[in-house]
Amino acid sequence: MTDTPPPSATSTSTWAAGDYPAMARRLTAVADRVVTAAEVADGTTLLDVGCGTGNAVLAAARRGALATGADPTPELLGLAVERARAEQLPIAWQPAAADGLRGSYDRVVTVFGAMYAPDARRAADALVRCCAPGGRIVSAAWTPDGFMAATNRAASRYLPPPPPGGQPPTRWGDLDVLRALFAPLAVSATVEQVRFEFPSPVAAAEFWVRTAGHLQAERARLIADGSWTALHHDLAAVFTEWNRSGGADIVVEAAYLLAVVDRPLN
Ligand SMILES: C[S@@+](CC[C@H](N)C(=O)[O-])C[C@H]1O[C@@H](n2cnc3c(N)ncnc32)[C@H](O)[C@@H]1O
User: Which domain holds residue 123?
Assistant: First the structure.
């Protein structure tokens, strides 16, 4: 079965429709991992593409990088700005999608961000364009055969069909696809895991639906046609299927591809 793209995944209003910040708080370990792979030092310039509420760009700034966060969703970018202000981190901002990025940086990172651009080729070209010669691109993206893709498949049955020609975001989690997107640059990658824990399958499904803007955007319709409960039920079943706690609580590992692309000096 193939992973289908959330139909509205690239609409910025959709990203603001759910409680995405609650999900982002569970993804800070991935941001730290990406910034570690980026190997930033004091004064390294870094661009975080699709920075959302700022996990990676803040982590980079804490390590001394001259960091810039870019995101097309004003509500999420606004939260990132507030977090940076609270920590007194001097971060620059670009209210932009991947294909509208400006500037040249030593490091370009993206944590589940560029994968949601509607045109993967344009997004990859933009990351390369913004990466200075001798610089490095680091991407984290959910894998096509992992837990996140399984939840997307379950939810897609309740969503409008994806637009014609729509590309699944998880193609950024496929090393062969990334190699084609970034050729002739070499891509090295590892598959890593992020762990999610919940007290029960029901609690897990509720969290998933509450934090997913593309599901919240369909809430009224799904309640009206009686399928809102079935959506929760199907998602709870996915959590149960992938559960490795051995008990009634939920522990799942969601795989992502951590990819590193080094841009030669010339
Ligand atoms: C799953 S969130 C990841 C946010 C953040 N990087 C994190 O780790 O929590 C996806 C982010 O991609 C952003 N996004 C959506 N379309 C985009 C595009 N075309 N280019 C760049 N970012 C995009 C959304 O606004 C959202 O903030």
Answer: 12-196+255-262
